[in-house]
Amino acid sequence: MKTPAASTIPLNRLLWTASVVVGASLPHWFELSIWIPLLLGTAIVWRLAAAVSGWRLPNRAIRMLFAFMAFTAVLMQYHTINGVTAGSALLVVMVALKFLEAHSQRDELVLMIIAYFLVFASLLYERGLWVGIYLLAFVWITTLGLLQLGRRGQLRPSWPTAKLAGRLLLQAVPLMIVLFLLFPRLPGPIWGIPGDTSSGASGLSDSMSPGDITDLGLSDEVAFRAEFYGSPPTADKLYWRGPVLSAFNGRSWTREPGMRRQVLDDIEFQGDPTEYRVMLEPHGRNWAFALDMPREWSGRRDIVMGSDYQLRVMFRDGIDTRIDYEVVSFPTYRAIEPMGPNELDRFRMLPEDSNPRTRALVASWLDDNPSDEQIIERALNVFRGEQFFYTLTPPALGRHTADEFIFETREGFCEHYASAFTIMMRAAGLPARVVTGYQGGELNGIGDYYIVRQSDAHAWTEVWFQNEGWVRVDPIVAVAPERIALGSSRASLRSETASRAGLARLAWIRNAVFAWDALNTYWNDWIIGYGPRLQRAILRSLGFERPRWPELLLATVIATACVLVGLSLYLAWGFRRKLRQDPAARWFERFDAKLARAKVASRKPSETPEAYAARAATELPESANEIGRVVGSYLKARYEPDSQRRWLRDLETLVRSFKPARQ
Amino acid sequence: MQMTGRLKLWAADWALRRQGRDQPDVTLKRRRIYILPTRFGAAFAALVFAMLLGSLNYGASLGFGLTFLLAGLMLVIMHHCHNNLLGTQVRFAGAPPVFAGQPAEFRIGLSNAASVTRYELEVAYRGQAGQPVDIEAGQSKHLTIEVPAQKRGRLPLQRFAVATRHPGNLFRAWTWIHMDAQCLVYPRPAPAGRPLPESYASEGSRMSAEHDEADFAGLRPAVRGDSLARIAWKAYARSGELLLKQFASGDLQPHMLDWDTLTDLEPEARLSQLTRWCLDMAANMRSFGLRLPGKTIPLGSGDRHLSECLRALALHEAPAT
């Protein structure tokens, strides 16, 4: 093996290779640690410098050393070479080293193959609409690169080649669509997914310590979207249930392993149902959000309801992909959960030494033997009567969070209120628990669905009554009712300084954001979310009742064959037209045939049209005039490009009407 | 490698049986154009298959999209590759005679009558593809196939392929062509030095030796087969053009070169020697004739006469003994 000579690949080919490689690795740069893109950049610059100004390239031994070092570095960093991230890190490293030693067309083509695979790898964890747009651009550029690098001769000018690449891709689209729609999709992985694709947990957590957070950052990240099939419930009914926190240690609320109990049968559903579809973003947990109170759900078989009425999806490692499901909920219900005294005591539990002042306050209410409703009313009055503020930047709280919140700071957000209220309920001996979830949502008028964001996260209280079961009480309503009424916190809370006029001026931005989100949702629904379920739905609408694997495969094969035949015919016909000689020559041939019938010997290949005409004219003196005109318009139609069409028409009428006078 | 070589040979023979021998001017029709993926094409297909498995495993919809787009692209490219060759006119445009030991150059004319450019057309001989050319709409180009000419006589171009890998080098579309294309191969000229037989030329020994400067009569462009000893190297260094020194030696006496004077040589060696003498005589503008068993060319001179003699030497059949 000799050291590659730098001059064996011309610079323009190297540049094409470099742009394809950079384009392919671009989506990975943000996922990989910084040294990997730097390595690639260095390799490219080095190789280009070698081509331009004759820098020395590393010899084989040094390249092997580089390769070994890079491989070790990847292994040490990711502890594996398996999985998407480590795999793509390795691929980028390979690309860098291969680029450095590229010295033949074969190397260029190997790099092309790796580049395609790199882009493919990025599609395994990137799903946004942007990625789709990027993908289109990349495929176009890469196809252009393929056409250029596939040549053994000089490269062609870029623009015509780019047009050719675009045409090839457009012709490939019908086949892509058919295969995309019909190719059988599997409900699960074939050999398991190396476990690094799940994004980190985001959004709600399964514990809550109100005193710890002094700045609740409201993330605009979308938690899920919900599309209602009928008219949606009013904003004050939009309570999306998440984790229920019933264990309290004096400062933090946490989840308690619930009883395995079939609770659904004991719920009394009243009033009209609300049907909707939830498109849940991956959040790393296995919670499926639904409006209180869900009765039926479909779309996934692995959704179950826990004893705390929360829906969960059976994902072993949390939900790491977009899922969607349909739910029927009843906003009016009686969640009667029959519980024994022991169980109820769990929901009355307060650590002995916690929040003494709050307990004393509540104890003072109990003297005149109030009803449960009266106790709730009094507790809410605490928040109503005194100067309580809803703020996202509350002061930190010490050991007795409820005491400090109620008697001193009086500033907090939903968690503070829910926690303090639940403590008051428990102090009064009422079984109560904290429910977290989302409240409200933003209606996207363009897509006609609700967007629920992390900033809509909420916490409220559920109190248990003997005959009513669990009843929702939201103390925030007492303090910041507009938060619930508007169904969204941002307008009222975040932009306290923003005037209404300012908001109105920004209306178009809002609309643009909505439009983008709607576009994203369609993208997610129809492209990213296209899986076995949607495929079955489409096939059913096409008339397949219960499509199974073999039928699906057969349908795929037949449809693909049809598209291929169509494509072949289209391309063959298109090319036939280009193969045919030009129309002027065709008309002249017909003229020749007419003359031949009048016994004029056909035009010899060596004979110019003029000579032929002169010969014909002498043989058919009576038609000499017409012959002259035909030849005249033929010559003009063929050789005067500006007025070709007109002369072609003349030629056509002349030849059609030409009747040689028989001798 | 040998296996695929044998397979290729078998396939080409099958194609010959199927399409028959070709006229010297042939337009490529659909039925005779074959197409297979190149090695890169096979790698590309493997890539698409790997992507398909990955998409299935990860349930990645965008992955499916890319996979199917590339699969579609490959099929579209296959058609374009085929069309790129379809309708091309192939013509044998002659092969100038050469001496044995030199490569014979068969000129193949490719014409594009379509209204679009044809890209990267190439001719291939025994698996060796030449440099590809692009042919604009309505244009023609000549490509050469070099075949080493080992033996004098008629060298036929048994079979060659016209092929293309455009676009993208994923497929190779080709057609085998069997035309009556021949190149005349003259015998390899013997090394200079052997004097003309005494009986024919009293001063023949002077022929290939040095000449007096006084005899110098001028220069003429050198042609293939001229004696190297008589190239005007100084003039070549000045002008870059190969010129041959001509001498007006008084020795313009015609010679009859005779097969029978070379009794000490094998028949092929005799032909080589006669070729050498013919070239030398022509270079000296001397008139000469050639006497071979069964054929006699009378005295004469000039290029046409030389060609006639060389042709007779090339095609000489040893009499059955």
Topology of this structure?
The complex is a heterodimer of chains A (663) and B (321).
Chain A: H1 11-29, H2 35-53, H3 60-78, H4 84-100, H5 105-123, H6 129-149, H7 158-182, E1 207-208, E2 222-228, E3 239-245, E4 247-248, E5 253-254, E6 267-270, E7 274-280, E8 287-288, E9 290-291, E10 294-298, E11 303-305, E12 311-313, E13 323-329, E14 332-335, H8 341-346, H9 356-365, H10 372-385, E15 389-390, H11 401-409, E16 411-412, H12 414-427, E17 432-439, E18 442-444, E19 449-453, E20 457-465, E21 469-473, H13 476-479, H14 481-486, H15 490-494, H16 500-505, H17 507-528, H18 532-541, H19 549-579, H20 583-597, H21 609-619, H22 624-639, H23 644-657
Parallel strand pairs in A: 15-16
Antiparallel strand pairs in A: 1-5, 2-7, 2-19, 3-9, 3-17, 4-5, 6-14, 7-13, 8-12, 10-13, 11-12, 17-20, 18-19, 20-21
Helix pairs in contact in A: 1-2, 1-4, 1-5, 1-6, 2-4, 3-4, 4-5, 5-6, 6-7, 7-19, 9-12, 10-12, 11-12, 20-22, 20-23, 21-22, 22-23
Chain B: H1 2-19, E1 25-27, E2 34-37, H2 39-58, H3 61-85, E3 89-92, E4 98-99, E5 103-111, E6 118-125, E7 128-129, E8 133-135, E9 140-148, E10 153-156, E11 160-164, E12 171-177, E13 182-186, E14 216-221, H4 233-239, E15 243-247, E16 255-258, H5 267-283, E17 288-292, E18 295-300, H6 303-314
Parallel strand pairs in B: 4-13, 16-17
Antiparallel strand pairs in B: 1-3, 2-12, 3-5, 5-9, 6-7, 6-8, 6-11, 10-13, 11-12, 14-15, 17-18
Helix pairs in contact in B: 2-3, 5-6
